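Checklist before submission:
- one chain only
- standard amino acids only
- sequence pasted in full

Submission:
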Amino acid sequence: MVVLTDEIIFPNTDLANPDGVLAIGGDLSINRLLDAYENGIFPWYNEGSEIIWWAPDPRFVLFTDELKISKSMKQVLRSKRFQVSFDTQFENVIHHCKTSNRSGQAGTWITEDMEKAYIDLHKEGFAHSVEVWENDALVAGLYGVSLGKIFFGESMFTKVSNASKVGFITLVTALREKGFKMIDSQDYTAHLESLGAFEIPRNQFEQILSTELKSKSKVGKWTEWLR
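Returned file contents:
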């Protein structure tokens, strides 16, 4: 495991251990976070510990043209029960993700410093949120980072059954129309597997990354850009 210095540079991901841990230390500055994502690396650690940087192998991804929508979810979407917006409540979304109770998980990996860092990324136009509403109440949401034609999903929350799926499906559909090729979901979840996500080798993920990051990033709020 590599210990990072003040210099913003990451080791080759081949140096990650079998669990995917690549490095520790450093900071959560905007420049370091962007450099990490550009190299397929992300931070994930608990409050009170040093920052841990990950590059897992395999990688859990969803290709936008392979999104699976079940018959029951198509009915939910057609019902218009939920409304979806983009980048209107980023701070609320990340805070809900931070404070949501998750089965089998004690505490949260979204530390105070992580929350602030991604809010800063959002203010710079690189981090984005999806909000799902029911009767003017925020009932689900997700956030992540966008570079080139890839969206790096970070976390989601839901208070109502199917609401987070509506948000995710709406995001993927809208990004596909904008030419996005892949959603990075980092590690396996059954929730996203049901929507079409699957594991690919890290080297394949990095090859796709290098190609899709050649496209110009859509920096700034997505409120009007995605509809």
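Reviewer check: The chain has seven helices and eleven strands.
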